[in-house]
Amino acid sequence: MPAKHEKAALIVGAGDATGGAIAKRFAREGYATVMIRRHADALEELASAIRAAGGTAYPMGVDARDEDQMVALFAHIEEEIGPLEAVIFNIGANVHFSITETTARVFRKVWEMACFAGFLTGREAARHMLPRGRGTVIFTGATASVRGSPGFSAFASAKHGLRALAQSMARELGPKGIHVAHSVIDGAIDTAWIAENFPERYKLKEEDGILDPAAIADAYWALHSQPRSAWTHELDLRPWMEKF
Fold first, then answer.
1. H or E element, residue 49
2. pLDDT tens digits for range 93-148
3. Which helix (H) or strand (E) holds 215?
4. Is residue 237 predicted with pLDDT exceeding 50?
5. Hey, CA dihedral for 200, 203, 208, 212, is it positive or negative?
6. φ, ψ at 17 (rounded to 5°)
7. Strand, helix or coil at 101?
8. Which residue in 47, 73, 51, 75 sits closest to 62, CA to CA?
C-alpha cells in the first residue's frame, strides 16, 4: 500500500509536557506525527489538540520495551502512514531511591524503560532510514546522563547507557546519512508534577527559571533541520539561572 503521507515523525514517550510539545512542533511542520505511550487513551487530548491546529496525529498504545511491538510499530508506520524522517526517544523513568533501597526489579525496570527501549527505538529507526540514506534520531537525556547523584543509581546508569548508545549510533550512522543526536535536559521542566511536588522551584517559571517544553521542542526541530555539513551530536539545555 502506498504511503499516505510524504513524511512521518515518531515520538516515543509522548507525555503531557516535552513529548507532547515535540509532537505538536513536528505536526506544525507538516509531519504525520505518530505518538506512543503504553496506553493510547492517555494520548487522546494531545492528538485532538494537534488535529484542531490542522495537524495529523496518530496516537498508539505500544510498550517500547517489547521488541515485537516495536518491530511491528515501525513496519506499520512505514507501510501505512509514511516514511519516518524523524524519530525522537523521550522516555524518562526518573526514580529516586537510596542504593540500599533500590530493588533489582526497580533497577531492571528503569533500565528497560530508559535504555533498552531506546536501543529498540534506535535500531528500528536505523533499519528503516538506512536504505534512504537520511533521517534524524534524537534521544532525550538528563543531568543524570553525565553525572550520577545520590539516590539516582538506577536512573543515572540507564541514562548513561542511553548516552553511550547515542554516541555509538552517531559514529556508525552519521557517515551513512543518519543524524543521531542526544540532548542533556539539565533542570526542572514546566510540568504539573514539578508544580505539585516542587512549588518553590515552579515559582521560578515567572523568571524563565524552568525549562519550557515548547522551547525544548524548538531546539529538537532545529536539530532535525541542521544541514549535514554542521550536525550537532550533543545539545545541553538548561534555564539561564541553572547551576552547572
1. helix 44-52
2. 888 889 999 999 999 999 999 999 999 999 999 999 999 999 999 999 999 898 98
3. helix 213-225
4. yes
5. positive
6. -115, -95
7. helix
8. 73
Cβ–Cβ contacts within 10 Å for residue 232, how many?
Answer: 13
Q: Identity (one letter) of the amino acid at 197?
A: N
Give tens-digit pLDDT for 51-87.
999 999 999 999 999 999 999 999 999 999 999 999 9
Residue 82: exposure state from Cβ atoms within 10 A (0-12, 13-18, ≥19): buried
| Residue type at 177 in one-letter notation | G
Angle, in degrees to the nearest 10, between helices 67-76 and 117-129: 30
| DSSP H or E segment with residue 87 | strand 84-89
Residue 136: all three cell numbers together: 534524524
The per-residue pLDDT for range 193-217, each reduced to its tens digit, is 888 888 988 999 999 999 999 999 9
- Half-sphere exposure (Cβ direction) of 19: Cα atoms closer than 13 Å: 25
CA distances, 235 to each of 49, 74, 141, 181, 241 (Å): 28, 26, 10, 8, 18
